[in-house]
């Protein structure tokens, strides 16, 4: 197995630069997991594939305003800070200061020990937030730093919403529309650097239709990191260092998933992040345990035996990515690559704002 096995020619004009006008009216490519047989449908048709006793599991995380654009104090040079995750257990007291793992640009001028501080303005040009680079992240692979965020506003949350911007994937170049369309309609706590995009296609009416058809609707939370967009550079995908993310599975979700499987229902994961959450929480028997914000670095490659997930709703993924490998593991590389060739021939819209697949 080589990384090149998960490459495919992606026409740039098929990379969706904005969401479909109506969430659940985008296209849906349905693929039989075993045979690879394909059907071209519309996303809201997903309710027609529901069997009584199924359970849909979605990642309810929201994308935080993690992109901070400002100026280096003193020189006035432009700088960018990207929030990865809060450093739990090491944050200063109060809600006006905290330590975060971050990425910065320009990296050479924002090194720990240099006294570098970046001031982040709000829409009116007033400094809402200051970021001081204080240390390196131990074991970091991309120059991650520890930074102290502080504000004179009542809380950091208020400052982030005043000054921060919702990050979009690097292949979405000029979207200036409603950023709420890069959030799922069921999203809750802001804890991710990127959206669980398979869920973007659901509307409240479609969620209700799925439940009327006999499925249950349950949630997990996985804090999506930037590495979700990262391609694999190594020739051997097994040599790639998979990213670590934090996930939670509530006792209620674990119980419903286990009961559904015991009764012969299917567990339908909405998105690869839901897959990684459920599979990380599953024993070899398939029983899913409750989890309260544990780390997972589960790397799913072809040959992996799925324990908890029976069907998958997902978007089309970047060539040579770990997500291409995950969906190939869920069916087969041959089936998935044939489906992608079909999607490109039929001019499906690709990647985060694009159309969807249902592998069942």
From TrEMBL:
Pathway(s) the chain acts in: tRNA modification; tRNA-queuosine biosynthesis
Origin superkingdom: Bacteria
Gene Ontology MF: a single term: S-adenosylmethionine:tRNA ribosyltransferase-isomerase activity
Principal EC category: transferase
SUPFAM superfamilies the UniProt entry points to: QueA-like
Annotated compartments: Cytoplasm
Biological process terms in GO annotation: tRNA queuosine(34) biosynthetic process
Catalytic activity: 7-aminomethyl-7-carbaguanosine(34) in tRNA + S-adenosyl-L-methionine = epoxyqueuosine(34) in tRNA + adenine + L-methionine + 2 H(+)
This protein's UniProt keywords: Cytoplasm, Glycosyltransferase, Isomerase, Queuosine biosynthesis, S-adenosyl-L-methionine, Transferase
A cellular component term, taken from the record's GO annotations: cytoplasm
InterPro entries: QueA, QueA_dom1, QueA_dom2, QueA_sf
EC number: 2.4.99.17
UniProt subunit comment: Monomer.
Family label: Belongs to the QueA family.
Functional summary from the UniProt entry: Transfers and isomerizes the ribose moiety from AdoMet to the 7-aminomethyl group of 7-deazaguanine (preQ1-tRNA) to give epoxyqueuosine (oQ-tRNA).
Protein name: S-adenosylmethionine:tRNA ribosyltransferase-isomerase
Organism encoding this protein: Parvibacter caecicola
Lineage: Bacteria, Bacillati, Actinomycetota, Coriobacteriia, Coriobacteriales
């Amino acid at each position: 197995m080589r990384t090149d096995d998960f490459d495919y020619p992606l026409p740039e004009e098929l990379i969706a630069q904005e969401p479909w006008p109506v969430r659940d009216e985008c296209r849906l490519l349905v693929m039989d997991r075993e045979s690879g047989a394909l059907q071209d449908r519309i996303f809201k048709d997903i309710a027609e594939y529901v069997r009584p006793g199924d359970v849909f599991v979605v990642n309810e995380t929201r994308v935080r305003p993690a992109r901070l654009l400002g100026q280096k104090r003193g020189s006035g040079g432009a700088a960018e800070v990207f929030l990865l995750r809060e450093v739990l257990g090491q944050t200063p007291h109060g809600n006006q200061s905290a330590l975060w793992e971050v990425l910065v640009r320009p990296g050479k001028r924002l090194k720990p020990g240099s006294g570098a501080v970046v001031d982040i303005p709000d829409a009116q040009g007033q400094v809402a937030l200051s970021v001081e680079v204080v240390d390196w992240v131990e074991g970091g692979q991309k120059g991650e730093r520890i930074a102290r965020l502080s504000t004179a506003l009542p809380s950091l949350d208020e400052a982030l919403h005043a000054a921060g911007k919702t990050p979009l994937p690097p292949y979405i170049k000029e979207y200036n529309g409603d950023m709420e369309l890069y959030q799922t309609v069921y999203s809750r706590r802001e804890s991710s650097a990127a959206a669980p995009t398979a869920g973007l296609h659901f509307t409240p009416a479609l969620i209700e239709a799925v439940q009327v058809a006999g499925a249950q609707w349950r949630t997990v939370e996985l804090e999506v990191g930037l590495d979700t967009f990262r391609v694999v550079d190594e020739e051997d995908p097994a040599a790639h260092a998979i990213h670590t993310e934090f996930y939670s599975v509530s006792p209620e979700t674990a119980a419903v998933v286990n009961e559904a499987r015991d009764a012969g229902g299917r567990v339908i994961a909405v998105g690869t992040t839901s897959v990684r959450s459920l599979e990380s929480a599953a024993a070899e028997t398939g029983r899913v345990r409750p989890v309260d914000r544990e780390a997972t670095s589960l790397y799913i490659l072809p040959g992996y035996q799925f324990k908890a997930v029976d069907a998958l709703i997902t978007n089309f993924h970047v060539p040579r990515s770990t997500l291409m490998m995950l969906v190939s593991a869920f069916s087969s590389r041959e089936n998935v690559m044939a489906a992608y060739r079909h999607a490109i021939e039929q001019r499906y819209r690709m990647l985060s704002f694009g159309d969807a697949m249902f592998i069942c």
